[in-house]
């Protein structure tokens, strides 16, 4: 099927710095290599949805700089509509500085930049596109109050909402959760949200019930190589992951969610099938290096 998906979220340029080790205070070291790539959970999810065939629009902010032009081009190249991405004249485009040691250890610094300026005004400009959408997707790399406003608008317009609660926030606003139809935490995030460690399926059910009690109808917990748990209040289960040799798990969760949103019926009637499709997409992504470069197309997934 061809869903219309609106993604509200972050756009970051990833600066990847490879080194033998991080320098000590006052020390200068040479880099072994450096690279630049498109990133941000919102951008990753939108690209995954678009590559899976969804008509995808993006609500976000970039700076009036070369990084902003670069990120807009990354979206356009994957078929994401960027009419709703504002150019901020004051704040720079968001960035992530990823310091990777030879041992594989990494340290990451985030500059929110224009992402932190995303506001209700930006959402209001997107009302027509939101009203025409089947699903709205958001994360927590932009202001929570903006996401809350957007989800309230979506619900009033009869549009289903999907929240990826990452990076995790212990206490999300009650109104945001009441306006969330589907929530998609991983094991760590669901424990932060509910206080329940997901050690087994019984614990997952307990955590899901806690989220149901807060107003979320459908809970999806991503379990990495173990698959995906789901509970819609009537049915629950675990959809196994595909066994592959993982090379790089960066953006695996974003790929899953974007692919899921492209396949999921607005009435959620094909939830298990859509999860299986998302698992296939994610299993392909982890077999390649990088975030956005590894996100597969629908043709690849069906093949």
UniProtKB/TrEMBL annotation:
Binding site for K(+): 248, 250, 285, 288, 290, 294
Carbohydrate kinase PfkB domain location: 3-298
One GO term (biological process): D-ribose catabolic process
Known regulation of activity: Activated by a monovalent cation that binds near, but not in, the active site. The most likely occupant of the site in vivo is potassium. Ion binding induces a conformational change that may alter substrate affinity.
Family annotation (SUPFAM superfamilies): Ribokinase-like
Pathway info: Carbohydrate metabolism; D-ribose degradation; D-ribose 5-phosphate from beta-D-ribopyranose: step 2/2
Binding sites annotated in the UniProt record for ATP: 186, 222-227, 253-254, 279
GO CC list: cytosol
Cofactor note: Requires a divalent cation, most likely magnesium in vivo, as an electrophilic catalyst to aid phosphoryl group transfer. It is the chelate of the metal and the nucleotide that is the actual substrate.
Single GO MF annotation: metal ion binding
Active-site positions on this chain: 254 (proton acceptor)
Substrates-to-products reaction catalysed: D-ribose + ATP = D-ribose 5-phosphate + ADP + H(+)
Annotated localization: Cytoplasm
Cofactor(s), by name: Mg(2+)
Positions bound to substrate: 12-14, 40-44, 141, 254
Record key words, sorted: ATP-binding, Carbohydrate metabolism, Cytoplasm, Kinase, Magnesium, Metal-binding, Nucleotide-binding, Potassium, Transferase
E.C. code: 2.7.1.15
Protein purpose: Catalyzes the phosphorylation of ribose at O-5 in a reaction requiring ATP and magnesium. The resulting D-ribose-5-phosphate can then be used either for sythesis of nucleotides, histidine, and tryptophan, or as a component of the pentose phosphate pathway.
Subunit structure: Homodimer.
Family of the protein in this entry: Belongs to the carbohydrate kinase pfkB family. Belongs to the carbohydrate kinase PfkB family. Ribokinase subfamily.
Listed name of the protein: Ribokinase
Top-level taxonomy: Bacteria, Bacillati, Bacillota, Bacilli, Lactobacillales
